[in-house]
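Data deposition worksheet. Section B asks for the primary sequence of the deposited chain exactly as it was used as input, without tags or linkers unless they were present during the calculation. Section C holds the resulting structure in token form. Section D is free text for depositor observations; keep each observation to a single sentence. Incomplete worksheets are returned to the depositor.
Section A, Depositor: J.P.
Section B:
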Amino acid sequence: MKNSKWQVQDAAELYGIHNWGVDYFGVNEHGEVTVKNRPGQGDQETPLLNIVKDISERGMSMPVLVRFEDLLEDRIARLNETFAKAIKLNNYQGQYRGVFPIKVNQQCHVIEEIAEVGAKYNHGLEAGSKAELIIALAHLENRECCIVCNGYKDEEFVDLGLQASKMGFRCFFVVEAPGELDLIIRRSRALNIKPYIGVRVKLSSIVGGHWNATSGDRSIFGLNITQLMELVERLKQEDMLDCLQLLHYHLGSQIPNIRDIRSGVLEACQVYLGLVEEGAAMGYLDLGGGLAVDYDGSHTDDTHSRNYHLQEYCEDIVDVIIHTLDPKGVAHPDIITESGRATIAYSSVLLFNVLDVANFEPKHIPEKVPEDEHQLVHHLVESLNAANPDRLQECYNDAVFYRDEIRELFKRGQINLRTRALAENLFLQVMQKLLSLSPKAPRDLKELQKLKDQLSDIYYCNFSLFQSLPDIWAIDQIFPVSPIHRLDEKPQRHAIIADITCDCDGKIDRFSSPEGMQRTLPLHHLNDDEEYYIGVFLVGAYQETLGDLHNLFGDTNVVSVRFNEDGSYEFADEIEGDAIADVLTYVEYDPRILKERFRKLAERAVKDGNISASERQQIMTAFSESMQGYTYYEKE
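Section C:
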């Protein structure tokens, strides 16, 4: 039921859509979450619900990961064009050369799109393994794009990169550990190919945020200053100091505070100056990642946010380099950033439907409790009748005491199951009444927030947290969550979201809001014969790569959407999610052997007279069809 006082802008504020959605996501007058068709090129918007309906008509089930190619294209364009503007404005003499870290999203369609769109900006790729280097070499056609090779490198890795340099790629080997230099020198001599060498340095600067373990002296990767000088001396001995052209550092993939970014650039510039003074050729300064995503929309230096915009980020980097290097007369280096999270996060949305709801409301309570019921049950009734705004705490304490006493008696067999059920329902009735009276209370109930959380609903949804949103489980990452329709109705329920895995950790129970972190999410009641859809936004970074097969739920269906100039859209690519047979092979089962084993079991049942031969055929058909079915819940 629509509330005449409730407006769609109230919903946009409640879910923070205009804060975390930048100018990509909004809400239309019908209460539907929309995505901009061509960001920055007009006001055409497409409701996500329309996309869901089109997906359904094509025979694909929820959950679905929707990738918006236009948003990815826009992120790459904004990053490069904002740096270009800052460079021009400050008369900076170097160029910007971004690279996308393949590890952030290794999916083929994503890398193809990045390589194609990035070609016009000389936007390259970062590879942290041999497999990723192969991906980079197969996708980058523009030889002006940089390839940055991080991570541990064996002989095969180095040889492949050297051959790439010979082909005309600017392929940098970033020395992460002291022993790597010997290998690079040895293989370059053997192949007679001059290498592009970079070095990763450990800065003393430490940043805030989840992923700050790569900053400071205890960073796992990189050389300290002593090791850096040893590398310089070794290159001098080998007459290869001119190969050292790039300085790299990485303080974290999500740096919320712009002051930390400035501090890191300042320290790195001093190291860069020192390398130039030692005679290294230099020419490239790689700042690693760090450009943050404002997941909670608060625009602060909170872990899940950032207190700066892209323009400030670019201008501050350029400004620090100029003011550090100019007094020493050192040429401005080309700037490289490995912005993966900020490039890809916005372009993917996970959509799923709600399957069921569990609430904590009293049920089946008689109008009058029988007089022969246990005295503690009658005490609960008294607590219910006595509840008023002036006695919230007292009634709460009494009800909890009586409920706990009843549970203890039940454990000792002194109260039967029916009495226990009645008591539990009466207790819920008391708690619901206290909650309804709390706004009128002269003072807060101490346990009010705890009570709200305990009485909130559980919405069971068709997805696997561990497969599609692993960072929520692993590191308490916050992603924006919102229903994608019915936002013209005021949500009357408060809930947590549970997935369909058999795991108590498979839930979302921390949500961002304009008032700060909340333990529940406002949602609508379910309507009969109508699907209710929820979206989790900004999930493009890492989630697909990190997902696991908890309960053997596999990859979801994926749809890539591209918008046309007239505001329409098309499905540029459709990828079916894993079938049950697919995920079984991932864990070393052979579907053919499983089918044969089941056939023998069914044949034995025929022999034993449990089923007929025709029934066996029906059972085998059902078994085979299930093997090819979607791993997630499919409605008939």
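Section D:
The mean pLDDT is 94.
Residues 177 and 222 are 6 Å apart (CA to CA).
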